[in-house]
Specification:
The complex is a heterodimer of chains A (268) and B (287). By secondary structure, chain A is mainly α. Chain A contains twelve helices and no strands. Chain B has 287 residues and is mainly α. Chain B has helices at 2-29, 46-60, 62-74, 88-124, 127-141, 145-155, 159-183, 186-193, 198-236, 241-250, 254-286; strands spanning 80-81, 86-87. A two-stranded antiparallel sheet of chain B has the order 1-2. In chain B, helix 6 packs across helix 7 and helix 9 (198-236) packs antiparallel against helix 11 (254-286). In chain B, 40% of the residues are buried. The model of chain B has no long low-confidence stretch (mean pLDDT 84). The chains are: A mainly alpha (268), B mainly alpha (287). At the A-B interface, helix 4, helix 5, helix 9, helix 11 and helix 12 of A face helix 1, helix 5, helix 6, helix 7 and helix 9 of B.
Chain lengths: 268, 287
């Protein structure tokens, strides 16, 4: 098991380095067209060939990974902050505040996450600039993905509020923001961090689902999800199996994340 | 018991109403809500176009729309789809069985596969089997539903099987962890030390502890199943609820989307409630 974890770490480090060095590793920009050679087969110059518009697939894969692997952690950070706020407020105040927050959490959890995400994204406009589509897609992931994490944080905060050291801190005159900053937040850091790490692979897959359905990042900007749209041309997959590479990369990266998340985190 | 179910029914009703109201609000603020493709039809008279606009205007007042919707709902009227020009009840009657059948198939196969591999890994505990089961679950937990549906479309395999493979990892991982934890309990170790075989230990000592906790996963797996069926139905062109929801969202069809949200919420919340109640009952009887 240790060797599997080492391989997972190596894969993620290698992915991060590749993504960071995309500018040097790619033969061209992600939007540059080689009009004289659309749908070219892999060659020394174009490692994965070119797409229908003559754009280098290897370059698009590198930049697509950069978009997904940079923005998914940002969305995860946003969702963790949101979960920390709602869960923390519910656990700290208790009573009616907790009941209202839990009702909101239940409401979000009662509709399947993927169903909610796809429906909401389909309702929002699609004919926007690539930058706007990236922002909308990942902001939506962050906005809709906080409920499960908030429930965990709420339970953690509630337990902490019952603990002896919090009672002692209260008896010593700590309250409000000071109590949260000095006692509650440092003790919830582990749970918040776990929720952050769990959210990253979930959001990468969610973006991939949106992208494959044409609801994700819009052209010409690539993302791991939007690259999967090439799979829709199913007839071309047999003669050009390298089109499956973005899917393979996605599976390897997410599997590496899953291996690194320990059993308790996966179970939760 | 009666109190529990009383609260449960109230909770289901409240969550369904809130979820459908939220979807109506979302649709109302979505760009393009007030326009209708039919207005571009040159064959329509100005009176017809005026009638279409009037209908849209009535929908735009969400509190009014929702109040009349709930009033009709109480009388069993789900309204009519604006984009498909059909009563929502008929559309649901047509599409719901397709999705429910696919969901049942996905859950049955996913659970069977997950349980079988988790139990096999627990009984035989070989490196090859563990590698195979973990690899399979790792692969499918990392695969987007839409991409898997595309691959299945290419291979001409049934789309419901793709959903089953996406339900499987959750069942396998949870069951495996549960069996592992239960097998380390003192009474199980004692039974082993006294010479009980692996099947006997599993059936008499591990399963009674693990089974009630496993029931709680039923609700979660139904939620996962419904979630993955939406992209699968869209990609594979299966005429189910998922495809209908996709169409409703894109066509800004308010009555249809509100009803679909209601149905999906109802199925999910009921499944969670029933599995929670079953888990509670089983834990109580085991104690």
């Amino acid at each position: 098991m240790k060797s599997v974890r080492l391989v997972a770490i190596a894969v993620l480090v290698l992915t991060a380095l590749t993504v960071l060095g995309a500018r040097y590793l790619a033969p061209a920009g992600y939007e540059q067209q080689f009009r004289e050679m659309p749908q070219a087969a892999p060659s020394a110059h174009h490692l994965l060939g070119t797409d229908d518009l003559g754009r280098d697939r290897w370059a698009r894969l590198l930049y697509g990974m950069r978009v997904s692997l940079t923005l998914a952690p940002l969305a995860a950070l946003f969702t963790t902050v949101l979960a920390g706020l709602v869960g923390g407020i519910a656990g700290y105040f208790g009573g009616w505040t907790e009941r209202c927050c839990k009702l909101l959490i239940d409401l979000f959890l009662s509709v399947p996450w993927l169903f909610l995400l796809i429906t909401v994204r389909a309702v929002l406009p699609l004919n926007v600039s690539p930058e706007a589509s990236v922002t909308v897609t990942f902001a939506l992931l962050g906005l809709l993905g906080w409920a499960a994490s908030a429930r965990v944080i709420c339970a953690g905060a509630k337990n902490l509020m019952k603990s002896e050291f919090i009672w002692m801190a209260r008896a010593s005159g700590f309250s409000g923001f000071k109590l949260i900053r000095l006692h509650l937040l440092p003790n919830l850091r582990g749970a918040l961090l776990a929720q952050f790490w769990i959210s990253i692979p979930v959001f990468i897959i969610a973006e991939a689902n949106l992208g494959a359905l044409g609801l994700g990042v819009s052209e010409p900007l690539p993302s791991l999800g939007s690259l999967l749209r090439e799979l829709q041309d199913a007839v071309m997959l047999r003669p050009e199996p390298w089109r499956l590479l973005p899917l393979a990369v996605l599976i390897v990266v997410i599997s590496s994340f899953q291996v690194l998340l320990n059993k308790e985190e996966v179970r939760s | 018991m009666l109190r529990f179910w009383g609260w449960a029914v109230l909770r289901v009703a409240a969550v369904m109403l809130m979820a459908s109201f939220a979807s109506a609000m979302l649709m109302r603020i979505a760009p393009g809500f007030s326009s209708d493709d039919q207005e571009l039809n040159s064959g329509l008279s100005s009176q017809s176009i005026q009638a279409i606009r009037q209908a849209r205007l009535m929908d735009a007042d969400i509190p009014h729309f929702y109040a009349s919707y709930v009033a009709s709902l109480i009388h069993g009227d789900l309204g009519a789809s604006r984009s498909l020009n059909q009563p929502v009840k008929d559309l649901l009657r047509e599409r719901l069985p397709v999705t429910l059948f696919n969901l049942a198939f996905a859950l049955a196969v996913g659970w069977l596969l997950g349980l079988a591999l988790a139990i096999a890994a627990q009984i035989w505990d070989t490196r090859a089997l563990s590698f195979f089961a973990n690899g399979l679950s790792g692969t499918f937990i990392s695969t987007p539903a839409a991409a898997l549906a595309l691959v299945f479309l290419l291979l001409r395999w049934p789309p419901a099987f793709a959903a089953a493979l996406l339900v499987y990892p959750k069942v396998y991982r949870y069951t495996q962890n549960l069996l592992q934890q239960s097998s380390e309990m003192p009474h199980v170790l004692t039974a082993r030390a006294k010479g009980a075989g692996p099947w006997r230990v599993l059936a008499w000592h591990i399963a009674p502890i693990a089974f009630p906790q496993l029931i709680a996963l039923v609700g979660v797996s139904i939620s996962i199943g419904i979630g993955v069926l939406l992209p699968i139905e869209v990609v594979s062109d299966v005429a189910g609820i998922g495809q209908l929801a996709w169409h409703a969202a894109q066509a800004r069809d308010l009555p249809l989307l509100v009803n679909l949200t209601m149905v999906v919420t109802f199925v999910t919340v009921c499944a969670t409630l029933i599995s929670d109640a079953a888990q509670r009952g089983l834990s109580r009887s085991a104690a």
